[in-house]
Amino acid sequence: MNPPDRRTFLMAAAAGAVAGAEIASAVASEPAAESSTSPANPMEKEPLKMKVLMPIGDATEVMDTLYPFFRLPEEGIEAEVAGPEARTYHGVMHEIPPERTTPWDITREQPAYHIKAALAFRDVDPGQYAGLFLSGGRAPEYLRYNPDLIRITRHFFDANKPVAVVCHGVEIVAAAGVLKGRTMTTVAKCAMDVTFSGGSYVDQPCVLDGNMVSCRTWHDYNTQFMKHFIRMIQERART
Q1: What is the DSSP letter of 137?
Q2: pLDDT higher at 156 or 106
Q3: Other CB atoms within 10 Å distance of the CB of residue 124
Q4: Which strand (E) or helix (H) includes residue 237?
Q5: How far apart are CA 41 and CA 72, in angstroms?
Q6: Which residues are 119's β-sheet partners?
Q7: Does residue 44 form part of some domain?
Q8: Helix crossing, 225-238 with 62-71: angle to 10°?
Q9: Residue 136, domain member (yes or no)
Q10: Hey, which bits of 26-130 come out as E strands?
Q11: Which range (16-30, 144-158, 182-196) has the least confidence?
């Protein structure tokens, strides 16, 4: 086979150059490929836009406290824990023991998990929070004497912000003087904290009264209690 003459070779080269230019032009006109950088981790947490304050102290009831502490962030609500000081506190568990050889008329207290408070009551600016969650245990018996906690609690009622109250948490709202004319529930042995403060006590699993939702103990968390509180927080965030 004879080799191509110069004219044939040049024509073929020109045709190849045109084809190459067309291919390059087509590639250049295509949308840019996505960056090879790995996409954001779908499990990465998004910043939480709402905050709820959770006051605690020694002998705070862990079931009262830890469930909302972990449940609220699932709805994009940060649960920030405060105490008389910024330190770790001793949680307790209350239950009536199952053995009946020597019956208990009230719950027995025993040690449980420890919970860390991120800041002290004196350093809390309640205006930075969308809601207040008051858990029970024996802690409220002495926390109610803290003037900064009383100041904080009154802010949420004055501003009509959502407040959740469980069990002995009633002792804090009672000490703050915000129960007059209000209806709520609590553990039966704390009913007088409500009535002596000018409120009405009802023995129901969950009571919603304006900006306040209450339940008797953590055993009532399977009611509308948490749903009411979360809904109120979310509605406030939209206003």
Answers
A1: B
A2: 156
A3: 19
A4: helix 225-238
A5: 22
A6: 82
A7: no
A8: 40
A9: yes
A10: 50-55, 60-61, 77-83, 88-95, 108-116, 119-120
A11: 16-30
Query: Residues 63-77: pLDDT tens digits?
Result: 999 999 999 999 999
Q: What amino acid occupies position 151?
A: R
Domain count, the chain: 1
Cβ contact 118:89 at 8 Å: no
Of 219, 175, 217, nearest to 194 by C-alpha is 175
State the residue for tokens 């809904």: 231
Strands 88-95 and 108-116, sheet pairing? antiparallel
In sequence order, what are the residues at sequence separation of 6 or more whose Cβ sits closer than 8 angstroms to the Cβ of residue 28? Answer: none
Question: What pLDDT score does 104 carry?
Answer: 82
Q: Could you give the CA distance from residue 60 to residue 115 in angstroms, rounded to a whole number?
A: 9
Phi, psi of 63 (to 5 degrees): -65, -40
Whether residue 127 is contained in a domain is answered as yes
For 156-166, the pLDDT digits (tens) are 999 999 999 99
Sheet containing 163-166, strands listed edge to edge, beginning at the edge strand earlier in sequence: 119-120, 77-83, 50-55, 131-134, 163-166, 212-215, 206-209
Alpha-carbon distance of 200 to 197, in angstroms, equals 9
Indicate whether 77 belongs to any domain: yes
Annotated catalytic residue 94: no
Q: What whole-number distance in Å separates Cα of residue 130 and Cα of residue 134?
A: 14
Task: Tell whether pTM > 0.85.
Answer: no
The CATH number of whichever domain residue 229 belongs to comes to 3.40.50.880
* Confidence at 170, pLDDT banded by 50, 70, 90: very high
Q: Please tell me which residue in 94, 155, 168, 228 is annotated as part of the active site.
A: 168
Enumerate the β-bridge partners of residue 163.
132, 212
Residue 99: which domain range? 50-238
Place of tokens 């109250």: 165
